[in-house]
Amino acid sequence: MKFWLLDYHPAHARWEFEDMEDFERLAFDGQPMLASWIPPRLKCASSKKPTDFLMRHNGALLVTEKAAKLFQRHLRHGEAEFLPVEHKGETLYFVHVLNIPDCLDVPNCLEERIGDTLTGYKQYAFHERLAAPHGILRIRLHEGDRLVNYPFVGDTLQAAISESDLAGYQLLEMWDSACSWQQKEADFEAMVEASDRARTKNFDFGAASPYMKKKGMTVYSGKWAMRHDPEKGLLIGDLLGDGTYSWIDPMFIPPILLGLTWGIKDPEPSPSGMLGKIAGVFAGGRKKA
């Protein structure tokens, strides 16, 4: 089983509170609010793409009625409450997660701290038996009383959202019972080391840049890769856990790349066509001599 972090996608739309008092009073701390619910006034600050996930505030997601109905079909009673907000003739809902189970495997979590204060977790681990029944949950830090500012969903709700036509969300895998984050890190490091061992014809950044442009080849260093695109110019790749690269068109070259040793892993392209034939003639002539 897996747990996924669920969030809205800011590239689709951005909503805000009209009144700062509403912003401050809505704690969404896991205590039921429906009986005393006073809807806030909201406004759409920007709308770029259609979305069913409009904003997140203190761990509660504002969603459309269509999204709320999907949640209601797949969650157990009491895991969340749906707090209505009327906006221009449409009913929106804050999905307020009430389910805060004690199922975190604290010794196997990777903590984030400022000084001695626990502020969150970089990596999560759960006790599978305790986590399995839950469709959606919030996490309380094991020190203090603070909640992680995102909802987590299990496989059932993740699949329902992914297979629906809902738009404007992010689902990020945070835990896999079949493979711990420690094992994933070890596998990734092994993949990086294998990439470095496979490199040939090593050179510094100053030589790598014109080489990849001239030869049309990708150069590698650790978890990084670079290639030249005829239209976009330099592209930088970041190695992912599945062995593929995530490519970006950078606004500037990250300084960390300048001091790395680069190399190629593929054989250089062989001459072809007429140039190849000419090269073969000269090579043959030299051989006879």
Walk me through this protein's architecture.
The chain is an alpha+beta fold and about 290 residues long. It has two domains: about 180 residues, no CATH class; about 80 residues, no CATH class. It is built from eight helices and 18 strands. A four-stranded antiparallel beta sheet has the order 10-11-1-12. The protein has a four-stranded antiparallel beta sheet with strand order 4-5-7-6. The protein has a four-stranded antiparallel beta sheet with strand order 14-15-16-17. Strand 15 and strand 16 form a beta hairpin. Helix 2 runs antiparallel to helix 4. The longest helix has 17 residues. It starts with a strand and ends with a helix. About 20% of the residues are buried.
What structural keywords apply?
289 residues, alpha+beta, 2 domains, four-stranded antiparallel beta sheet, 18 strands, 33% strand, disordered C terminus
The 3D shape can be described as: globular
Distance between the termini: 69 Å
Task: Kindly report the average pLDDT value.
Answer: 91
Question: What are the secondary-structure elements, in order, as H or E?
Answer: EEHEEEHEEEEHEEHEHEHEEEEHEH
Strands side by side in the biggest sheet: 10-11-1-12
Radius of gyration: 26 Å
| Secondary structure tally: strands | 18
Helix content percent band: 25-40%
Question: Which spans have pLDDT < 50 for at least 5 consecutive residues?
Answer: 273-289
Number of helices in the DSSP assignment: 8
Which class of secondary structure composition applies to the elements? alpha+beta
Biggest sheet layout: 4 strands, antiparallel
Beta-strand proportion: 25-35%
Q: How many structural domains?
A: 2
